[in-house]
Amino acid sequence: MLPVFEVKRPATLTEALEALAGGTNVHPIAGGTNLIVDTRAGKIAPDLVVTISDLAELRGIEIRDNKIRIGATTTLAELAESDIIAQHADVLHQMSKSFANVLIRNRATIGGNLVNAAPCADTAPAFLVLDAQVELASIDGTRCVPLDEFFVNAFETTRQTNEILTAVWFPVPSKYSVGRFEKMGLRKISCMAKVDVAISITLDRNGLCEKARIALGAASPAALRAVDAEAELVGQQLSTQRIETAAVKAAATVVPRSGSEYKREVVQGLVRRLLTAATEKGVQQ
């Protein structure tokens, strides 16, 4: 059973931020796919829950000044259906299509998934390879934090209790950029990821790699980028051997729990597969 708590439905973002500033056990809620489950399980016991799902300031997907802004309460279903995302951020499009199931995609929000910071959060690797930043607001103002600095540990971020994650921003990727996302789970439907891999590469006219991003989830306490593997690719022709070396370095990046060391081999295989597929498409563009 759910414990008893007060619910407040603010009309504006300012009212929501004021509510968060007014107490020490106050939680914002949008889709509720994490908060309600954790509350029911007794992991948290909020005194006040502030509903932010109806706030217009936190919704929508748009391009501003060559950056894509996604409001924090945008659902995974909306992300999957967005023409902007399909055209400019294929890695996000692929991730959103594989996220849980239709019912959860209709409720779960990108902000909630990032703030919850579960090691298996699908959105985290996909946004990491896009060099995303999160926008955090409080009654004292707004700050932007690079996503690779936002995650601290499993279920821990740099968000303060009086802050709301209001949006995610990332530069519009080059038209020559190719992104890929894949996860390994126990089941094909509604599975919790055992390993998440996202990659993004940009090739020049000569087939040299101008930019590379590789991000890994569910294989370490927090999602992370495999920067050594990325460095192996930049400025190089992405030959089979080069890709294999990068895959090995990516696998060495993760820190799986005891008993889950097999995830290193899974990471290596997925990185190899995604880089190979992205390289083939990049050469054709």
Number of domains: 3
CATH level-3 fold name of the largest domain: Uridine Diphospho-n-acetylenolpyruvylglucosamine Reductase, domain 3
The dominant shape is: globular
Tell me the name of the CATH class of the largest domain: Alpha Beta
Cα separation of the termini = 55 Å
Tell how many strands the DSSP assignment holds. Answer: 14
Q: Order of strands across the biggest sheet?
A: 4-5-10-6-7
The helicity comes to 25-40%
Brief descriptors of the model:
four-stranded antiparallel sheet, 26% strand, Enolase-like, domain 1, 3 domains, Uridine Diphospho-n-acetylenolpyruvylglucosamine Reductase, domain 2, alpha+beta, single chain, 14 strands, 12 helices, five-stranded antiparallel sheet, Uridine Diphospho-n-acetylenolpyruvylglucosamine Reductase, domain 3, 285 residues, 35% helix
Chart the SSEs and their pairings.
Blueprint: E1 6-8, H1 13-21, E2 26-29, H2 35-40, E3 48-51, E4 61-64, E5 67-71, H3 76-81, H4 83-88, H5 90-98, H6 102-105, H7 110-116, H8 123-128, E6 133-138, E7 141-146, H9 147-150, E8 151-153, E9 156-157, E10 164-171, E11 177-184, E12 195-203, E13 209-217, E14 224-225, H10 227-233, H11 240-253, H12 262-284
Parallel strand pairs: 1-3, 2-3
Antiparallel strand pairs: 4-5, 5-10, 6-7, 6-10, 8-9, 11-12, 12-13, 13-14
Helix pairs in contact: 10-11, 11-12
Short description:
35% of the residues lie in helices and 26% in strands.
Question: Can you walk me through this structure?
Answer:
With 285 residues, the chain is α+β, with helices and mostly antiparallel strands. The chain folds into 3 domains: 6-51, 2-Layer Sandwich (Uridine Diphospho-n-acetylenolpyruvylglucosamine Reductase, domain 2); 56-171, Uridine Diphospho-n-acetylenolpyruvylglucosamine Reductase, domain 3 (2-Layer Sandwich), CATH 3.30.465.10; 177-284, CO dehydrogenase flavoprotein, C-terminal domain (Enolase-like, domain 1, 2-Layer Sandwich), CATH 3.30.390.50. Helices cover 35% and strands 26% of the residues. It has helices at 13-21, 35-40, 76-81, 83-88, 90-98, 102-105, 110-116, 123-128, 147-150, 227-233, 240-253, 262-284; strands at 6-8, 26-29, 48-51, 61-64, 67-71, 133-138, 141-146, 151-153, 156-157, 164-171, 177-184, 195-203, 209-217, 224-225. The longest helix has 23 residues, at 262-284. The protein starts with 5 loop residues before the first strand and ends with a helix.
